[in-house]
């Protein structure tokens, strides 16, 4: 069973955390500090499995190239999961890979900015995929269909008049178009 999953940047900034076992806030801070330090200090060719305290830690580096106004940005996110000692490390690595695939499908090539600005969606994708530290839905299409249904429900519940009056709807529309443009052009560079 997975104990926790954390995502952090190569600068060590926490982007997402999901705890499946109860830890105090002090313990969480220590775990985050220790694991980000350990994982970031490892060389790229080193093994992605670490025995840490009484857990196995499995991590994967997700690399994404982004093209923003004539500047190339090399973004890396580290997906780090801690599992019990008897759990299979390769299966955990595959779980991380499946989560990255789901994020890629949902966001259209996920990058760090997607996680920062749409963290609630990243959590929702994770919750649709895993429950209580165990994989609940192995099918990508089924999980993505459920996520799309939830998006439709949220859009129907949003007070449309308020957003239109404030001009926010146009802003969100423009940002979505710009985000799609960035993702599409990043693949051709």
UniProtKB/TrEMBL annotation:
GO molecular function, one term: clathrin adaptor activity
Domain AP complex mu/sigma subunit intervals: 1-152
Classification via InterPro entries: AP1_sigma (IPR044733), AP_complex_ssu (IPR016635), AP_mu_sigma_su (IPR022775), Longin-like_dom_sf (IPR011012)
Subcellular localization(s) per the UniProt record: Cytoplasmic vesicle membrane; Golgi apparatus; Membrane, Clathrin-coated pit
Gene3D superfamilies according to UniProt: 3.30.450.60
Coiled-coil annotated spans: none
Matching PANTHER family: ADAPTOR COMPLEXES SMALL SUBUNIT FAMILY (PTHR11753)
Keyword list, A-Z: Coated pit, Cytoplasmic vesicle, Golgi apparatus, Membrane, Protein transport, Transport
Lineage top rank: taxon: Eukaryota
GO CC, any one term: clathrin-coated pit
Chief place where the protein resides: membrane
Family of the protein in this entry: Belongs to the adaptor complexes small subunit family.
Membrane topology, from the record: Peripheral membrane protein
Protein name per UniProt: AP complex subunit sigma
SUBUNIT field: Adaptor protein complex 1 (AP-1) is a heterotetramer composed of two large adaptins (gamma-type subunit AP1G1 and beta-type subunit AP1B1), a medium adaptin (mu-type subunit AP1M1 or AP1M2) and a small adaptin (sigma-type subunit AP1S1 or AP1S2 or AP1S3).
Gene Ontology BP terms: intracellular protein transport
């Amino acid at each position: 069973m997975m104990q926790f999953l954390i995502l952090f940047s190569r600068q060590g900034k926490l982007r997402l955390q999901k705890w499946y076992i109860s830890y105090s806030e002090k313990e969480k801070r220590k775990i985050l500090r220790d694991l980000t330090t350990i994982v970031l200090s490892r060389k790229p060719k080193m093994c992605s499995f670490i025995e840490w305290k009484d857990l196995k830690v499995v991590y994967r580096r997700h690399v994404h190239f982004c093209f923003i106004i004539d500047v190339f940005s090399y973004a890396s996110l580290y997906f780090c999961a801690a599992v019990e000692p008897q759990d299979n490390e390769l299966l955990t690595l595959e779980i991380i890979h499946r989560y990255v695939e789901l994020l890629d499908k949902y966001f259209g090539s996920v990058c760090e900015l997607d996680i920062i600005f749409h963290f609630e969606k990243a959590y929702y994708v994770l919750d649709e995929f895993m429950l209580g530290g165990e994989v609940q839905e192995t099918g990508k299409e089924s999980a993505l269909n459920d996520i799309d249904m939830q998006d439709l429900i949220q859009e129907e519940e949003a007070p449309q008049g308020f957003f239109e009056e404030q001009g926010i709807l146009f802003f969100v529309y423009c940002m979505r178009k710009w985000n799609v443009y960035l993702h599409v052009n990043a693949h051709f560079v």
